[in-house]
Amino acid sequence: MNILNPICEAxxxxxxxxxxxxxxxxxxxxxxYDYHNHxxxxxxxxxxxxxxxTELWLEGDHYKWRAMRANGIDEKYITGSADARDKFxxxxxxxxxxxxxxxxxxxxxxxxxxxxxxxxxxxNSANQIYDETKSLLQEEDYSVRNLLRKFNVSTxxxxxxxxxxxxxxxxxxxxxxxxxVLTAFRPDKAINVCNAENFQKYLxxxxxCTNSSIGSYQSFVDALKTRHDYFHxxxxxxxxxxxxxxxxxxxxxxxxxxxxxQQLMLKKMPDIQMQIEFKSALLLEFAQWNFEKGWVQQFxxxxxxxxxxxxxxxxxxxxxxxxxxxxxxxxxxGIFFNRLEERQMLTKTIVYNLNPTDNEVIxxxxxxxxxxxxxxKMQFGAAWWFSDQKKGIQDHLNCLSNYGLLSQFVGMxxxxxxxxxxxxxxxxxxxxxxLIGSDIQxxxxxxxxxxxxxxxxxxxxxxxxxxxxx
Length: 470
Description:
Elements: H1 17-27, E1 32-34, H2 41-45, H3 53-58, H4 62-70, H5 84-94, H6 102-115, H7 126-137, H8 144-150, E2 153-160, H9 167-173, E3 180-185, H10 188-191, H11 196-210, H12 217-233, E4 238-243, H13 254-265, H14 272-292, E5 296-301, E6 303-304, H15 309-315, E7 323-324, H16 330-342, E8 349-353, H17 359-366, E9 378-380, H18 390-403, H19 423-441, H20 449-467
Parallel strand pairs: 1-2, 2-3, 3-4, 4-5, 5-8, 8-9
Antiparallel strand pairs: 6-7
Helix pairs in contact: 1-19, 6-19, 11-12, 13-14, 17-18, 18-19
């Protein structure tokens, strides 16, 4: 029985004629500016071609891995050594079980956009879709660069550790590739001192890439500053900071910081107070460097990572064993931004919250530090990770509208490792257009096409294109 796939219909998520017109005439064909993802610059330089859809789709997607585990799929078919066709078959068997999960929507949007496939994916269609996509992936039109062109990507920004050589970004910058590929400076490993042994390993990497000897706290900071300068020289204009804790705002002395550093050098674990002091000092340094260079800084707040330690030992980190944290950080966030503001060193800033109960906290806080000079300087970041589904996006847009200016929002990100995930921009655009179209239908805003089309266009592309110093 051939069942119609509603996700591939033009009206998907668009509940009225106003919404559909805004999507079709304004949002649909706009370029994509994806300012935060975890794609591989190496794959773009080498213009990688994927062997099959399993390699393209399942290689690093922990969203799918979590769903497959929840559906009772053995790990050998997820991250293990099973045959590629068998892995895809198990994913296909899982897809029907993801009804009402965003994965169901994303899966079919990606199949349609990238491959023109509108068949519903399930156990019965798996082999046909596997063979059809495998054949298409052998063609030049399906290399990494051509996939980016297919999704109409204009700019994307990956994220790298300070010790990264940036060799692939350097090659891209000097190439004729028309899509702009940027990097972001993400020093999470440098700031994470909960494991002294891992910290020492990181110091060795930092010494190698800076050709320096690091034996004191100040030499450690100097080495990181060298890398910050190096990233800037090679075109970096964004910083990423993942905070798995409240904004650290203690004010340790130089002597206290040196003592903590020497404890780490002796492989002694600093206590919680010392860890917060160390993080406080470093995060403030990074924020000041970001201001001095005119960068945009991003704070991703509220992930509880690698919760299942047994699974992490067996399978690895960042493999889908993370969840939403519930710590309180409103007060410390205000102190942190205020400290930078007092020093007149608060740069453009985006704050993402993983816990949706913090929406109002973030939306109201960023409004305290708008400067009256830079439109949308302080941003309530897009619905992120566990929140980048229909309700999460709607809640984010409504909250931003209530507490700030939706018109200045810099739009959606994929935060993804998959070259097919740019369909999430279409998903976001449909939800945005339906929100505005429904307001028109309900007579909550004027039926002024020029007004609302400019709003949609700016949120989907224009604001980001102006906001980032790239």
